[in-house]
Amino acid sequence: MLRYLTAGESHGAVLTAIIEGMPAGLSLAGDYINRQLARRQGGYGRGARMKIESDTVRFLSGVRGGLTLGSPITLQVENKDWDNWSGVMSPEPDGRVGERVVTRPRPGHADLAGAMKYRHGDIRNVLERSSARETAARVAVGSVARRLLEELGIKIVGRVVRIGGTEAVAGSLDMEELAAEMAGSQLQCADPDAEQRMIAEIDQARKAGDTLGGIFEINAYGVPAGLGSYAQWDRKLDGRLAAAVMSIQAVKGVEIGLGFAAAGQAGSLVQDEIFYGQDRGFYRMTNRAGGIEGGVTNGEVVVLRAAMKPIPTLYRPLRSVDLITKEPVEASVERSDICAVPAACVIGEAVVAWEIAAACVEKCGGDSLAELKDNWYNYLLYQRQV
Q1: CA-CA distance, 44 to 338, in Å (whole number)?
Q2: Contacts of 368 by beta carbon, 8 Å cutoff, 6+ apart
Q3: Model pTM?
Q4: Which of 80, 247, 281, 346 makes a 20 to 30 Å CA pair with 56?
Q5: pLDDT, tens digit, 9 for 90 and up, residues 37-54
């Protein structure tokens, strides 16, 4: 069983993650994770915080000589801005916690609900943890899972399909073609013409002190049939994937395959008919189910899309009410992005990689990578013989 926890505040000293259940013998280098962390920080429309941070991971346990040990892996990402916040965010009783107090909740954030839940008088206690800065730790964790999936022949590719009012042409789902179309993209978009219109929309939103959301798509290639389960609700892989992606900050909707569009079509136009060939076994001519039926992968590409709302921190703040005085005020303004959909796409790749890796380990087990791969390839051989 794979599991992980993250810890840390946006302006705290570090972000930390602990991974348990990763098989021993997996080749894992810091540079591999750092490349994914750099992708998360990129994308047109990011804010000033990304100019401060240059995320790199440090292994504190579970890895020796570039190989996982089978014991818990501890990952750490330093916050470069800590020097400017060490007094305000100090854990010590003499810390300067009375500075930079936030009492004006921002609509659309966890500010007010979190302060009420935990009885905080300073909303900074909420926003420091609810911040999307936490996702740097999740990308680091997902990168470890991605490394494991590569050993099993599974690859994860995400793309941005909409920003604001601009939608990209769907294009090819072929993995190599998709990667080639996104090479050099500032928005992880496979449609260059649409990308230029997206950039223009972001520029316009920046001038207006506003923000933009959008939709990103995650595709998982090489996933065999049989991951997940129909036997219990909490073991259905589509449910687990949806929960993981929905947990990304600002994501408000998730669909798999046709998703919501299927609700308006006849059943004959929604299902994927089944065929068989001696050279390829069972297969489908369509993939409207998005690679999952009944909570179980069916051997087709897993296709998942998520809708990200516009970031609620606005440089022209909305109306709010002061937490302490109860007087009408303008909401607080923290450093923020104009559009973070490309970053959310990278985070989406990470959390999808984690859930699929967890399902692979559940299906084939193994305390070492060698044992897991033996079980994995025996399962694939069985499928080819069915």
Answers
A1: 9
A2: 23, 24, 25, 70
A3: 0.95
A4: 247
A5: 999 998 888 765 555 668
